[in-house]
Task: structure prediction
Amino acid sequence: MIRTAVIILSDKGSIGQRKDGCGSVISAMLDRIDAQVVHYEILPDEQHLIKAKLIELSSSVDPCVDPSVDLILTSGGTGVSPRDVTPDATLEVIDKQIFGITQAIISEGFKLTNRAILSRAVAGIKNKTLIINLPGSPKAVAECLSVILDVIPHAVEKIKGSTEDCAR
Result:
C-alpha cells in the first residue's frame, strides 16, 4: 500500500469559504493503484506553511528508512497568480526534481486546453517521499492524475530502494 498525504492549497478553502472537490477525486483515483490517503489537510496559499508541511510529511526519525508517507499530492497554487506559491515551496524542499512527470502532465493537458502551458507544477523527491503538485480544480486534477497514475507505484518502489529491473 502507498501511504499518501493530500494537501489542498486554497486561501478560501482553509477558512471554510470554499468546499474542496479535489480531495475526493484524488482519493477515488488512488484506489486504482492500492494507495490510501492517510493524511488530508487544507492550507492557505502561504509558502512557509506549505514548505513546513512538506518537510513534516516527508520526514521521520530515520527518513532514509521509513518516511511518514510515500507520496504527497498537492492540489492548487500551481499557476501564475501572485498567490500561487506551491511550486516555489516544493522546489525549496525537494532533493531531486522529476521533470518527466510535469512534462507529461503539461503535454497531455495541452491537448485539452492551451492553458495547461501556464502550469508551474513541480514533481520531485524529498527523502523517500514522492511529491507531485496538481492543479486546483477537480476536473484538472482528474485529467492530470490520469496521465501519471500508472507510473506512481513504480516510482515509489524505486524511491524506496527497489533494485528490481525496470524492463518490461
User: Anything to note?
Assistant: The first helix runs from residue 11 to 14. The radius of gyration is 15 Å. The chain has a mean pLDDT of 94.
